[in-house]
Write a structure and sequence with these properties.
Length: 478
């Protein structure tokens, strides 16, 4: 049976026949397989995920950690989970860093005047009062600093790194280090400021923000991202051979830490209710847009996947726990706080999956667990293959919020999504509800619901991550 758009949900009799055919090792119990097919078809027929994304983005708006929108998001999440019948709905306190964007302006002052669309990178220090003006030095990469140490002193370094469009995260992974580390690398060599070509794939006048990390002991210099058309303008002016001068002004500032929360709700399990299948997404967003694709989409997907499981006539054996994490974007305090607060319970975490790659359709599941987990994953993949989501990617599980669970060996998962358009909008003022793709979102709900249901029903949980794979350098930047 192959799903095609527009096809009616499968009849119940057909479900039984399909379930009987799903005997991949280890064979799923026929009733479990049948319920998985029901979940898949209900999600595909039109889920309420888009309604949760609309509620979060329209009612809370932008929700950078510690902002009024962040508090509104916590209230929205508590009210929504309660209204949908989740059990043990609660807010677990998290202390978060607070960074506020101020007025930000930029202009080219020579060789010809132009205004620039730019935005501070999250965590940047402000420029001096009245702004910062200097000649720019354009570099194609951070490594290019090596041969140019004498040229960058007293200048504004312009890192002109092009991000490649890709259906997976590879283009982002290659380009993003310049955003996180460029300011400190250039500051160490005496640069007075840093501008980057936005890490994005669009050609809109909307710069892409994102977190930077100041290295310990390196001088802190202000850093901002240029909208891509303006980065290309700077590039062209540089090709004329004339000195290019830029003035920019950032009014951002850091405030004392504030309280936020991880919001949790559960579909209570049965005979194995103390074992947890965690479905995570992050509740916070950057401040420029309303965070519909990052990560309103993930919140909608995990809430809806768990809600559909709760609507089945049979309760799951293990507890399905939705965690909407605080402060993923500029500190990941929520993910760290969860791992600490639940340290004693982590051995009982049977699986954790994070949805934080936007609104694009799924093509499969990434997984990081012990090798014997693959057999059960193959059974899940067979159920998801007809909706185009049956690929499996070893060592592909995890995410910024569930990453801290890795040390405890918790098996980690992620839906593999089409991100070819994600970085047109990611971290910009253009990340708004109208970018949500309801049909693709429903396929994500189907994938996550089927995964979580099977994970909650399997006789044996997934094998833990082997010791030697538990610690690894930092997860990908948020
Ligand atoms: Zn995100």
């Amino acid at each position: 049976v192959r799903f095609r758009p527009g096809q009616a949900p499968l009849a119940v009799a057909a479900l039984a026949a399909v379930a009987a055919a799903l005997d991949a090792p280890p064979p799923l119990d026929a009733a479990v397989a049948q319920a998985a097919l029901t979940l898949r078809e209900r999600a595909i027929a039109g889920s309420r995920a888009v309604e949760w994304v609309r509620g979060l983005t329209d009612e809370a708006g932008p929700r950078l950690a510690g902002s009024p929108g962040d508090r509104a998001a916590v209230d929205w999440a508590l009210a929504t989970l309660r209204a949908q019948g989740f059990a043990n709905v609660r807010a677990e306190r998290v202390l978060v860093p607070v960074w506020r964007r101020g007025v930000e302006t930029g202009e080219i002052t020579a060789p010809w005047p132009h205004t620039l669309a730019l935005t501070a990178l999250g965590g940047s220090i402000p420029t001096p009062e009245g702004g910062l003006e200097a000649e720019i030095v354009e570099l194609p990469s951070m490594d290019a600093l090596e041969g140019n140490a004498d040229r960058v002193k007293g200048k504004i370094v312009f890192f002109n790194v092009r991000m490649e469009r890709a259906a997976d995260m590879s283009g982002y992974a290659r380009a993003v280090p310049v955003r996180s580390d460029g300011a400190s690398r250039a500051g160490k060599l005496g640069a007075v400021g840093v501008l980057i070509r936005s890490i994005g794939t669009d050609h809109n006048p909307t710069p892409h923000t994102g977190g930077l990390r100041y290295a310990d002991g390196a001088p802190k210099v202000p850093a901002a991202a240029l909208a891509i058309p303006d980065a290309e303008l700077l590039e062209r002016l540089g090709r004329t051979g004339r000195p290019v001068r830029v003035r920019f002004s950032l009014g951002c500032r850091e405030l004392p830490q504030a309280e936020s929360a991880n919001v949790i709700g559960e579909i209570k399990g049965g005979d194995k209710k103390d074992e947890i299948v965690l479905l995570g997404a992050h509740l916070d967003s950057w401040d420029l847009g309303t965070g519909a694709i990052d990560d309103g989409a993930g919140c909608g997907i995990v809430i809806e996947a768990a809600r559909l499981i709760g609507q089945l006539p049979v309760k799951p054996r293990r507890t399905v726990r939705v965690v909407l994490f605080a402060n993923e974007e500029n500190g990941s305090a929520g993910g760290k706080a969860y791992a600490l607060a639940h340290a004693a319970e982590l051995p009982k975490h049977a699986a954790a999956l994070e949805a934080d790659s936007g609104t694009g359709a799924p093509s499969g599941l990434g997984w990081t667990a012990g090798p014997s987990a693959e057999a059960l994953l193959k059974a899940i993949a067979r159920i998801l293959e007809p909706i185009g989501a049956g690929a499996l990617k070893a060592d592909g599980g995890g995410g910024a919020d569930i990453g801290p669970l890795k040390d405890a060996g918790v098996p980690l998962f992620a839906a593999i999504q089409d991100t070819s358009r994600y970085f047109d909008f990611h971290h910009t003022a253009n990340d708004t509800f109208d970018k949500i793709e309801p049909e693709a979102l429903d396929r994500m709900v189907a994938s996550v619901a089927v995964f979580a249901w099977v994970a909650a029903m399997a006789p044996e949980p997934f094998e833990k991550i082997p010791e030697e794979k538990r610690t690894e350098p930092r997860q990908r930047a948020p």
